[in-house]
């Protein structure tokens, strides 16, 4: 697909990790909701990333079937409309390995050369990094505090010290180049996406003369982004026994503080919006989570997999608003952030503050988007706000001025450290002759 063969006014969305699970659910829901809510003269270009061609082909086939399903349903109500709907959606697949910084650069360069813009980038791909389950603890906590233990579990066992394969090729004499370790869970869940967002920022930026909504960079967090799991001295989670949870806490810290004055110098550099001669509106970073969904991120044998699905449904029937279970319902928050009017998002943030948006559900299976409390920030950074009754972690604490100050300070430190890390790795890749120029 070249620039000449695409419509500049189409709606371009990139979803990472869309071969299965939540990513595939996001893609399917995007197709459905886009065709239902957007004008007939507006088209969707949905770009998905997978690690290999086989998975990409399977994902495109699944999304193509979803499109045909939507068209067949519409055809019954309005004969002849299916062909119109079919033409409004274009599907495209690309290769991306978030554990390879060169792979991130190559995809970014290709997109910058072949698409006129991006409206939304949904950073969904990631790994759990878990090695198993403490079964004794799992049974004990589930039986004594069912909803709490299945919503904020403490029984998963994590790998420790996992690192990616070397990012730099051997030197000319065959010796290995010196490079710092790069945490595997950290890179898959955050740093790979962090670099991707930086390189794609020019495609997400809006020129002052346009009337388009802000480009949106949607980061995927989790209910398990616990404050106690994160240590800024171990920002890559290399020593952490809860690397997944730590990487999601980092996501929360950086996404929420990305619009605060304390981080503005770092964010402007990251979003490549420092050109004084050009009036550019930088993209916005939004934060979402899918609730509790039944996905392959925790590998279980078939019997246990079905047992876990049943446990999730029971949690919902017991009143948990976060057990959405299926991926199409888990996709609600991310898709809403992608398609909502800019005025809607701005108004809600003006009223409730910057926060974290989650996929929620009621006992009848009706999904919705729900604000989610963040430790050290509350629901929107408002001191002394009245605690909400439903969906609140039993470990949550009332937001105080001190905890909010600590959150903002830690967020600023994270932005400074990640920008330093980004520049360091770009320099190393360039010096090794494998870095990809974005010019």
From TrEMBL:
Its EC number is 1.1.1.270. The keyword Disulfide bond does not apply. It comes from the Eukaryota. Keywords: Lipid biosynthesis, Lipid metabolism, NADP, Oxidoreductase, Steroid biosynthesis. Coiled coil: none annotated. GO terms for cellular component: endoplasmic reticulum membrane; lipid droplet; mitochondrial outer membrane. The keyword Membrane does not apply. SUPFAM superfamilies: NAD(P)-binding Rossmann-fold domains. PANTHER family: 3-KETO-STEROID REDUCTASE ERG27, DEHYDROGENASE. This is 3-keto-steroid reductase. It comes from Didymosphaeria variabile. The lineage of its organism: Eukaryota, Fungi, Dikarya, Ascomycota, Pezizomycotina. The gene is ERG27.
């Amino acid at each position: 697909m070249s620039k000449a063969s695409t419509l500049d006014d189409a709606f371009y969305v990139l979803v990472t990790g869309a071969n299965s699970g939540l990513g595939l659910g996001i893609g399917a829901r995007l197709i459905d909701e886009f065709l239902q809510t957007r004008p007939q003269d507006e088209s969707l270009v949905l770009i998905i990333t997978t690690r290999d061609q086989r998975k990409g082909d399977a994902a495109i086939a699944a999304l193509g079937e979803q499109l045909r399903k939507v068209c067949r349903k519409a055809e019954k109500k309005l004969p002849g409309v299916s062909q119109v709907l079919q033409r409004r959606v274009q599907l495209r697949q690309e290769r991306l390995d978030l554990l390879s910084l060169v792979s991130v650069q190559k995809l970014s360069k290709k997109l910058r050369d072949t698409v006129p813009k991006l409206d939304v980038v949904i950073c969904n791909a990631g790994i759990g990094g878990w090695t198993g389950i403490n079964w004794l603890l799992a049974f004990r906590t589930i039986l004594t505090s069912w909803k709490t233990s299945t919503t904020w579990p403490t029984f998963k066992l994590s790998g420790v010290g996992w690192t990616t394969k070397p990012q730099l090729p051997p030197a000319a004499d065959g010796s290995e180049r010196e490079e710092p370790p790069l945490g595997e869970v950290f890179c898959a869940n955050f740093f790979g996406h962090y670099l991707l967002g930086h390189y794609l920022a020019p495609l997400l930026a809006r020129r002052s003369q346009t009337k388009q909504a802000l480009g949106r960079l949607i980061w995927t967090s989790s209910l398990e982004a616990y404050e106690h799991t994160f240590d800024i001295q171990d920002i890559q989670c290399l020593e952490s026994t809860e690397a997944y949870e730590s990487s999601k806490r980092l996501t929360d810290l950086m996404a929420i503080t990305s619009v605060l004055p304390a981080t503005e110098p770092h964010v402007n550099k990251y979003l490549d919006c420092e050109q004084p001669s050009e009036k550019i509106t930088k993209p916005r970073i939004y934060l979402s989570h899918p609730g509790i969904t039944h996905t392959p991120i925790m590998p279980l044998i078939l019997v246990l997999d079905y047992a876990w699905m049943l446990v999730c449904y029971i949690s919902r029937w017991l009143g948990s608003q976060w057990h959405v279970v299926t991926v199409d319902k888990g996709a609600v928050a991310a898709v809403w952030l992608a398609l909502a009017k800019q005025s809607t998002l701005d108004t809600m943030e003006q009223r409730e503050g910057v926060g974290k948006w989650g996929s929620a559900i009621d006992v009848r299976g009706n999904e919705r988007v729900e604000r989610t409390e963040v430790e050290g920030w509350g629901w929107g950074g408002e001191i002394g706000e009245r605690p909400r009754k439903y969906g609140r972690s039993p470990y949550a604490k009332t937001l105080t001025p001190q905890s909010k100050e600590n959150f903002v300070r830690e967020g600023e430190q994270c932005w400074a450290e990640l920008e330093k890390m980004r520049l360091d790795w770009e320099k190393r890749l360039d010096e090794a002759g494998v870095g990809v120029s974005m010019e």
